[in-house]
Specification:
Elements lengths: L14 E2 L2 E2 L5 H18 L2 H15 L5 E3 L1 H9 L8 E5 L10 H14 L4 E6 L3 H13 L2 E7 H6 L1 H9 L3 E5 L6 H15 L3 E3 L10 H9 L1 H14 L5 E5 L4 H7 L9 E9 L10 H4 L1 E5 L2 E5 L24 H9 L2 E7 H15 L5 H16 L5 E5 L8 H7 L5
Helix pairs in contact: 2-4, 3-14, 3-15, 4-5, 4-9, 5-7, 9-11, 10-11, 14-15
Bound molecules: pyridoxal-5'-phosphate.
Length: about 400
């Protein structure tokens, strides 16, 4: 019996089962075909991966540590109804340069930009994290950089706007629609349609038309590969469960992918449950959405009866997106990954809890994964191991969290 491994996707049409594909205007097809061809060559070129590995080691600070969170584990044991409580480990992507996993992708795509002989990159950004990671890669590799950002986000995320400008990037405020991430993405795609000859569009998550979801996953898979090796070294085997938060899905895809064929490892994705499960109150397309096309690919999308994309809400700007990567849709339908959601309130509690038990202030996105991890660890046995992807640090969120926690000034 030789069942196809679930990791052997996408197919040559860019499909993860039914999902993914290339739903774009004709003007972009040539650019996506070029990108597919260049990446197909790079993917089997040792020199390409050696250069990326060198950057990861010397510039990003990889490998990021796998850290045993003893006091968080103790807490999970104290609330365990079954006198259990698995050992909790954190994969410290918050310690990567610029403070999150996003740099893994922007450096990889920056190298691809060079390989195509292009001199300019563009990017979309919501909270500004992908914008900062793109501006950082552009500065490091000597590329021009324009970042599209909703005008509302420009206002809310002032510090990241300043960071991008300091790094030499140009920030373009977008005034259409809800003036947030979805609108910035539309605008970046529009730019690319007119500029593909000299410009590469660095999408910030495992979303968009093929080959982006595959490329971003491959660059983020360094997280999961390191985690496998580090688990073997730390406790002599693979973990029983791996947990990650899901916005577009790149940090989750990166840590899940190298475990996908190890079916005894439970994989758990955590979406933003927001204020309630009512329309417009959350950002959980895998939990509450329907299949549909958004930003060039078919996946689960939050939409109304007419198929119009819904408004979304989350306390964390990085999870505040109505779509999700097509590979997650495939993993959901195949049952390989379990998806759940965590509310704003529970994420905020977990934010404080990680800060106070471990001395690590997580990003609000990451805090969603913390809440689920503690809960799950409590229901597991004491000799089991659970790994959480600590996707980013919370410096960017302390002001917003203080406001939500009513801590005043
Ligand atoms: C952007 C971001 C996320 C959400 O994006 P994914 O593509 O789902 O990983 C999660 N955590 C942090 C820290 C982020 O900056």
């Amino acid at each position: 019996m030789s069942a196809t491994p679930i990791s052997a996707v996408p197919n040559e049409l860019g499909r993860f089962g039914d999902y993914g594909g290339v739903f774009v205007p004709e003007t972009l097809v040539a650019a996506l075909t070029q990108l597919s061809e260049v990446y197909a060559e790079a993917r089997i070129d040792h020199a390409f991966w050696d250069e990326l590995e060198h950057l990861n080691r010397t510039f990003v600070g990889r490998a990021t540590p796998l850290y045993r969170a003893d006091r968080l584990t103790e807490h999970a044991r104290s609330i365990s109804a079954s006198s259990g409580g698995a050992t909790i480990w954190l994969k410290r992507e918050d310690l990567a340069h610029t403070g999150a996993h996003k740099i893994n992708n922007t450096l990889g795509q920056g190298l691809l930009t060079r390989r195509m002989g292009k001199k300019r990159i563009i990017a979309e950004t919501g909270a500004g994290q992908h914008g900062v990671a793109s501006a950082t890669a552009a500065a490091h590799l000597g590329l021009e950089c324009d970042v599209y950002m909703g005008a509302e986000d420009v206002r809310r995320q002032h510090l990241n706007v300043v960071r991008m400008k300091m790094l030499g990037a140009n920030v373009v405020p977008v005034d259409s629609g809800s003036r947030t991430l979805k609108d910035a993405t539309n605008e970046a795609m529009r730019d690319w349609m007119g500029s593909v000859d000299g410009t590469h569009y660095i999408i910030g998550s495992v979303v968009g038309p093929h080959p982006f979801p595959m490329i971003v996953r491959d660059f983020q898979a360094v997280i999961g590969r390191e985690t496998r090796d580090q688990c073997r070294e730390a406790f002599g085997g693979l973990p029983d469960a791996v947990v990650a938060c899901v916005g577009g899905g790149s940090n989750a895809a990166g840590i899940f992918y190298p475990f996908v064929d190890d079916t005894h490892v439970a994989l758990v994705g955590v979406e933003a449950g927001g204020r309630s499960s009512g329309a417009g109150d959350h950002a959980a397309p895998l939990s509450h959405g329907q299949p549909g096309v958004l930003h060039g690919s078919l996946s689960y999308v939050l939409q109304d009866d007419q198929g119009q994309t819904s408004d979304v809400h989350s306390c964390s700007a990085g999870l505040d997106y109505p779509g999700v990567g097509p590979e997650h849709a495939y993993w959901k339908d195949s049952g390989r990954v379990e998806y759940t959601s965590v509310s704003d309130a529970a994420a905020l509690d977990a934010f404080t809890q990680l800060a106070r038990t471990e001395g690590i202030i997580p990003a609000l996105e990451t805090a969603h994964a913390v809440a689920e991890t503690v809960c799950r660890a409590a229901s597991m046995a004491r000799n089991q191991h659970i790994v959480m992807n600590c996707s980013g640090r919370g410096d960017k969120d302390v002001q917003e969290a203080a406001r939500l926690l009513g801590m005043g000034d």
